[in-house]
Amino acid sequence: MGKTLRDHLFDTIRELGESDLKAFKDKLNNFQPRPGYNRIKWGELEKADAVEITRLLVSYYKEDYAVEVAGKVLEDMDKKNLAHNLFQATGKAPGGTQQTPEPTSSTRTRVTAGVAAPMPREHRPGSARAGDSGDEIDLR
């Protein structure tokens, strides 16, 4: 099973050292979110660890916007490499646009009309389902 946006968010926040984590929380507390969203209160952030910060980001901003917010905060901290890695791993880009995530060796895909989609098991080379004879049935 692949990593979720929340997993990538947590992994990124966990990479921050103690002083960087404190700076991240301070910048996050002062971050001005889009209209319709609220700032995360300092009382909730002050003693939060990476797990709690991830939970707060997702509960306040939902996963997609939480990735964008965390990336912008990291960029403001001059942690552009971490922000870039987060955006690349999640397929998100600053401003809420989608990037094409890097393919993994464990994912086989087919391309249909320019859109990559997981290849159904029955179409993967060397995979057969029980009862498959290979004969096609005309259901007309």
Structural topology:
Layout (H helix, E strand, L loop, with lengths): L4 H10 L3 H13 L11 H4 L4 H27 L3 H11 L18 E4 L2 E4 L22
Antiparallel strand pairs: 1-2
Helix pairs in contact: 1-4, 1-5, 2-4, 4-5
Separation, N- and C-terminal Cα atoms: 38 Å
Q: How many β strands by DSSP?
A: 2
Quaternary organisation of the protein chains: single chain
Which structural category fits the helices and strands? mainly alpha
Query: Low-confidence parts, pLDDT < 50 over ≥5 residues?
Result: 97-113
Q: Number of helical segments?
A: 5
What integer value in Å does the Rg equal? 20 Å
Percentage of residues in helical conformation: 40-55%
Task: Write out the strand line-up for the largest beta sheet, numbering strands in chain order.
Answer: 1-2
* H/E element order: HHHHHEE
Main sheet specs: 2 strands, antiparallel
In terms of DSSP E residues, the strand content is 5-15%
Report on this structure:
By secondary structure, the protein is mainly α. Helix content is 46%, strand content 6%. It contains 5 helices and 2 strands, in the order αααααββ. Strands 1-2 form a two-stranded antiparallel ribbon. A hairpin with a 2-residue loop joins strand 1 (109-112) and strand 2. Helix 1 crosses helix 4 (50-76) and helix 2 (18-30) crosses helix 4. The two termini are 38 Å apart.
What is shown here, in short?
The chain is mostly helical and 140 residues long. Helices cover 46% and strands 6% of the residues.
